[in-house]
Amino acid sequence: MISEKTNVLFIENNDMDFELAKRAFRLAKLNNRILRHSTSEAVLNMLKKNTAGTLKSKERPNLIFLDLNMPDLNGQEVLRIVRADETMQNIPVIILSGQGDQNTIDALYKTGANSFMVKPGNLDELIVFFRLIREYWFKVMKLPTAS
């Protein structure tokens, strides 16, 4: 179970998609601190700080929403890098994409994705999506302790 007092990281390069997601997140009554990295480089810098022991707790994610279609490294490569960090292996990663073929989805799960979701098409659908996230990840799901 994830506390609603923890950090949620959006790895999303599209400003409009991020703003829409942030709005829906709040309308779904989720009050977590929202973090954002819009480039793979920013994610890599976060992981370097984590490895060096200089990542502050307010910067450390407890749940990650990862856009599959990042411009520099794709989401699967970012996921592989996150999963290689022992201290972040237990953080749930939900992949978001505008579309997904079954081969890509299978590969993402093999790489360590916890969930794959096609991005909802409008604000109302996104609110429903985040309400489901709240029920599952914040109320039902039990997670291992952090490494």
Describe the structure in your own words.
The protein is built from five helices and five strands. It has one domain: Rossmann fold, CATH 3.40.50. Helix 3 links the parallel strand 3 and strand 4. The mean pLDDT is 89. Helix 1 (15-27) packs across helix 5. With 147 residues, it is α/β, with parallel strands linked by helices.
CATH class: Alpha Beta
Question: What is the H level of CATH, i.e. the homologous superfamily?
Answer: Response regulator
> SSE string, helix = H, strand = E?
EHEHEHEHEH
Beginning-to-end CA distance, first to last residue: 16 Å
What is the total tally of β strands?
Answer: 5
Any idea what the radius of gyration is? 14 Å
Structural class, from helix and strand content?
alpha/beta
Strand neighbour order, sheet with most strands: 2-1-3-4-5
Largest sheet: 5 strands, parallel
Helix content: 40-55%
What key phrases describe this protein's structure?
single chain; five-stranded parallel β-sheet; 147 residues; alpha/beta; Rossmann fold; 5 helices; 5 strands; globular; 16% strand
Q: What would a concise description of this structure say?
A:
The protein is α/β, with parallel strands linked by helices and 147 residues long. It is built from 5 helices and 5 strands; from the N terminus they run βαβαβαβαβα. It has a 5-stranded parallel beta sheet with strand order 2-1-3-4-5.
